[in-house]
From TrEMBL:
InterPro entries: 6hp_glycosidase-like_sf, EDEM1/2/3, Glyco_hydro_47, Seven-hairpin_glycosidases. SUPFAM superfamilies: Seven-hairpin glycosidases. Ca(2+) binds at residue 479. Residues 1-26 form the signal peptide. The active site is at 136 (proton donor), 276, 375 (proton donor), 396. It is found in: Endoplasmic reticulum. This is alpha-1,2-Mannosidase.
Length: 583
């Protein structure tokens, strides 16, 4: 009879082998290929139902109100500016059209993409007396314009020759210049609100969020690289470095701060609203610009998140000063995190596939429980937040599902995507588009089709079922779902350890399965793999090596963080580092 430990390893091998066999066989299974084609067309119809209704009833205003088939100019309304205070000739910023540009390309509609680009080139203006949110305008408008310009000028010749003369780049530069006054603060941290015509208004609030001042580097950095004007990247980088200097001794951040004094206002934070894209942009900036500084920031932050926020499959909020838990709640924005852990097609970004899969399944459990994912769910009471019961067509769960499928090719994620698509069609589709849900317990609808439904939700679902847009291409998607190509010319110094392994890249030939310390269960994390991935260095982002290579120690401070569990290792009585506290 086999010893108990041997039995456990045999069972583990059988499970792994069965999983690998299932993955490899399902990939060639005509059933899954047919399902993906069918679901792709279902998502395409969803997108055009939303897009065509916007163009018919709301264009050139910002967003569609699908129940009444009217419009809202949401960018100005985000600043609490009433429409009657806007100029008489103001017709909106065509926000939903800008947000749809890259989605049109992903779905292969170059004709409509060209029509939209040329209309924006001739009609879009930013010289308007409107108070806008810097963060939202950056990720939605500036990001949309920069991405569309790069798609319009790449080697695929999507536009008729001679029809496009870099007009979107000029519009993006004009908008970027209007952002710059927001950074004129003693700290370099930008104001959250700015008037497009007059700059920072008198008595403007000095409060902003961590995301608001720490998630500008991709769009503004790309603008600098495209125009040759370093001011945009320099402003965003100065703000990011200042924010980084404000971290606690635990490498944690708060949620809100004062841009003038540089003091924290809210010390509690997690991985959700107010902070989420800050973590996302640290890593993606490393990929786009090749700065090791961004990787070091991300690595330190990621380790802190795993240590102080993670509780099993969930992530609660904690006080940045003490690491003590503050709020035990799930927010819909947190659903991006598994995607960050497992992203990108050819190899994983962070590599914690097991952790990503575990969290993703919990989010999907909540989705199945309510039919969609509510804005806030109280983990300690296993109930909905009493006032935040809404679902505004958010994309984060679809985004993570797409990334996890690309990382694993597990067909279960195709089924998750099918469930999401069916729920959206069942509960949110109306004659005039797709409506947000006001209360997930009653499925009462709200008259708003957010632009990110076109920019992200439909795009990620489409890419889940058809990733042909990514074949032989390298892209990073911004937090608003706008693709930016990874260009070696943009790198200050190519990061040797991460090029091209963590680029967004799909090869036409048979795809090699993903590997990471977490998925392979190896420790120490940095090891030379001799199995299926022979000749490949494997490293987990949460791993912190022991001080000594022989793992000898005198105190706990000599021990690092384990790669497979992301737990702190401790020093044993015999003087060796290990997971002694968890045996």
């Amino acid at each position: 009879m086999l010893p108990r430990k041997s039995v456990k390893w045999v069972l583990l091998f059988v499970l792994i082998f069965a999983s690998v066999f299932e993955l490899s066989s399902s990939k060639a299974d005509p059933h899954w290929a047919a399902k993906k084609r069918r679901m792709r067309e279902k998502v395409r119809k969803m997108f055009y139902h939303a897009y065509d209704n916007y163009m018919s009833h709301a264009f050139p205003h910002d967003e569609l109100k699908p129940l009444t088939k009217t419009f809202t100019d949401s960018l100005s309304e985000l600043g609490n500016l009433k429409l009657e205070h806007l100029p008489n000739d103001y017709n909106g910023s065509a926000l939903s059209l800008i947000e749809s540009l890259s989605s049109l390309v992903v779905m292969g509609n170059n004709t409509e993409f060209e029509r939209a680009v040329l209309w924006l080139s001739d009609n879009l203006k930013f010289d308007v007396d409107a108070r806008i949110n810097l963060f939202e305008c950056n990720i939605r408008v500036l990001g949309g314009l920069v991405s569309a310009h790069m798609l319009a000028t790449d080697s695929t010749s999507r536009l008729v020759k001679g029809a496009y003369k870099n007009q979107l780049r000029s519009l993006a530069e004009d908008l970027g210049k209007r952002f710059l006054p927001a950074f004129n603060t003693p700290t370099g941290l930008p104001y959250a609100w700015i008037n497009l015509k007059y700059g920072v208004m008198e008595n403007e609030t000095t409060e902003t969020s961590t995301s608001g001042c720490g998630s500008l580097i991709l769009e503004m950095g790309a603008l600098s690289r495209l125009t040759g004007d370093p001011r945009y990247e320099s402003a965003a980088l100065r703000a990011l470095r200042k924010l980084w200097s404000m971290r606690s001794s635990l490498n944690l951040f708060g949620t809100t701060l004062d841009v003038v004094t540089g003091e924290w206002i809210e010390y509690s934070s997690g991985i959700g609203a107010g902070v989420d894209s800050f973590y996302e942009y640290l890593f993606k900036a490393h990929i786009i610009f090749g700065k090791e500084e961004f990787w070091r920031m991300f690595h330190s932050s990621y380790v802190a998140v795993q240590k102080y926020f993670r509780h099993g499959s969930w992530y609660h909020e904690a006080d940045m000063r003490t690491g003590k838990a503050t709020y035990w709640q799930l927010t819909s924005l947190q659903a991006f995190w598994p995607g960050l852990q497992a992203s990108y097609k050819r190899h994983v970004l962070v590599g914690d596939i097991a952790a990503a899969n575990s969290s993703h399944r919990e989010f999907f459990y909540v989705w199945e429980k309510y039919g969609v994912i509510p804005e806030r769910y109280l983990l300690d009471h296993q109930m909905l937040h009493p006032t935040e019961k809404y679902y505004p067509l958010r994309p984060e769960l679809a985004e993570s599902t797409f990334y996890l499928y690309q990382a694993t090719k597990d067909p279960w994620y195709i089924e998750v995507g099918e469930t999401i698509v069916n729920s959206l069609n069942a509960y949110t589709k109306v004659d005039g588009g797709f409506a947000s849900i006001r209360d997930v317990t009653t499925m009462q609808l709200e008259d708003h089709q957010h632009s990110f439904f076109l920019a992200e939700t439909c795009k990620y679902l489409f890419l889940l079922f058809d990733d042909s847009f990514l074949v032989d291409q390298n892209y990073i998607f911004t937090t608003e779902g706008h693709p930016l190509p990874v260009l070696s010319a943009w790198h200050d110094r190519l990061p040797e350890a991460y090029i091209p392994t963590n680029w967004s890249f799909v090869k036409k030939e048979r795809q090699v399965r993903q590997a990471s310390s977490m998925s392979l269960q190896v420790c120490p994390a940095t090891t030379w793999n001799t199995g299926e991935h022979k000749g490949q260095w494997i490293e987990s982002a949460c791993h912190v090596p022991d001080v000594r290579s022989d793992h000898r120690c005198i105190a706990n401070e000599d021990c690092g963080i384990d790669s497979t569990t992301c737990r702190r290792r401790s020093c044993s009585i015999a003087g060796f580092c290990g997971l002694w506290l968890f045996i």
